[in-house]
Amino acid sequence: MGDVQVIFKKEDIRPEDLQGKTVVVFDVLFATSTITAAIADGAASVIPVHNPEEARIIAKKSTDSFIMAGEDQGKRIEGFYPPLRTHLSSVIKDKHLILTTTNGTVALHQSRRASDLYASSLLNNPAMADHLLQFHKDDSIILICSGSNGRYTMEDFYGVGSLVSHMRGVEEWNLSDAAMTAHLFYKGNKDAAHLLQNSRIGKMLMSAGLDQKEIDFAAQEGLFNSILIYDSVKGQIKEGKHASN
């Protein structure tokens, strides 16, 4: 079996070190959870971008149907949908979602040199684990926590632990100390909603007015079977079976 390592925040990503590696990016609250839900709800693709300006440039050039969603330092962006399923599910079908967030979409951009790049969340971790076992069992796998503005975040580490724990025969993988710690942390904390609500980011968002139901949604494990593959040439994330279209 292959090696499994963990990067704790996007600022620690060294793109040149990801060449030849299989990479999975997490931003549980909320970028990769929103991407998972958008693809499951019928989005044609998700286009993660660095910032609102880049989103507007891509939108201006687009000849396909699209919507823009995002946040900047947790704040709403004029002309963009909030990056939450509640606001997107009724308008996303067959459209491209141009998405900008403070951390998760930046982490995806910085990981583009990986040989295979995926986004994952609690919502689709069991399916992602099965995919890694089927197609990447001998690869060097890097699990990336997006973090928040240079700081470690508990919910992303928990997401990593969830994925490792769902990788059947976990004892056969060559886990780094960080990967093993994430696995043990997950096994000792099975109430995902409570953990996410009490994370620093969860508390900050709810104090700013976020409805708790948004966090409760992101805490659901295995709700979808989507495999979210990033096409580094097209800059799009699609569900696995549609990735080459």
From TrEMBL:
Lineage: Bacteria, Bacillati, Bacillota, Bacilli, Bacillales
Protein name in the entry: Probable 2-phosphosulfolactate phosphatase
GO function terms (MF aspect): 2-phosphosulfolactate phosphatase activity; magnesium ion binding; sulfopyruvate decarboxylase activity
Family statement drawn from the similarity comment of this UniProt entry: Belongs to the ComB family.
Keyword check for Magnesium: yes
Superkingdom of the source species: Bacteria
Organism: Halobacillus litoralis
The EC number(s) this enzyme carries: 3.1.3.71
UniProt KW keywords: Hydrolase, Magnesium
Pfam families referenced in this protein's UniProt entry, alphabetically: 2-ph_phosp
InterPro entries with a match to the protein in the record: ComB-like (IPR005238), ComB-like_sf (IPR036702)
Cofactor: Mg(2+)
Record's catalysed reaction(s): (2R)-O-phospho-3-sulfolactate + H2O = (2R)-3-sulfolactate + phosphate
